[in-house]
Design a protein that fits this description.
By secondary structure, the protein is an alpha/beta fold. The chain has one domain: L,D-transpeptidase catalytic domain-like. It is about 15% helix and about 30% strand. It contains three helices and eleven strands; from the N terminus they run H-E-E-E-E-E-E-H-E-E-E-E-H-E. A nine-stranded mixed sheet has the order 1-4-3-2-11-6-7-8-10, with helices on one face. A two-stranded parallel ribbon has the order 5-9. A hairpin with a 2-residue loop joins strand 3 and strand 4. The chain is globular and about 50 Å long.
Length: about 170
């Protein structure tokens, strides 16, 4: 599992810990058009993630997304689900932050993955929690989708491996 996360994740370096609990909950809203029930849609420009429920409804969560030059769009699927994952910084993060440890254990206050992570098929990215709740809502990552810990826990329980994920720039 650690090896998969080491190879699969490219996230923002997030050292430090905020003891403040973020009080977030998904909002039920009108669904983005054209997506099947059960699909996760990330709208980068809105910094929102939608879980399409069907019948024109979706759950909407605030998220942090890729900073300038680190954004991407496309279709993928969830290929792994992990609670309290350990994290190894990808080469790009390590290059930008050479003093970061090679591995940060799961559950450590300095672990940027938060309480859960869902890796995305195709390699580098994940939808995950955070140890820096004030970063949710910004352009903050190396391409991953960052959620409040309460929100990733909620989403984690609602979706399965194989869930389609669409990331759009709009």
């Amino acid at each position: 599992m650690l090896r998969k996360l080491t190879m699969a994740l490219s996230v923002t370096m997030a050292i430090g810990f905020s003891g403040t609990a973020a009080l977030a909950a998904p909002s039920e809203v009108a669904s983005p058009n054209g997506y099947a029930p059960g699909t996760i849609v990330v709208k980068t420009s809105e910094r929102k993630l939608y879980l399409v429920l069907g019948e024109g409804r979706a759950l909407r969560y605030p998220v942090g997304v890729g900073k300038a030059g680190k954004q991407w769009s496309g279709a993928t699927r969830i290929d792994g689900k992990y609670r309290h994952p350990a994290w190894s910084p990808p080469a790009e993060v390590k290059r930008d932050n050479p003093n970061i440890p090679n591995v940060i254990p799961g559950g450590a206050p300095s672990n940027p993955m938060g309480v859960a992570a869902m890796t995305l098929e195709g390699g580098e990215y994940a939808i995950h929690g955070t140890n820096r709740p004030n970063s949710v809502g910004g352009y903050v990552s190396y391409g991953c989708v960052r959620m409040y810990n309460q929100d990733i826990s909620d989403l984690f329980n609602r979706v399965e491996v194989g869930t389609p994920v669409i990331v759009t720039s709009r």
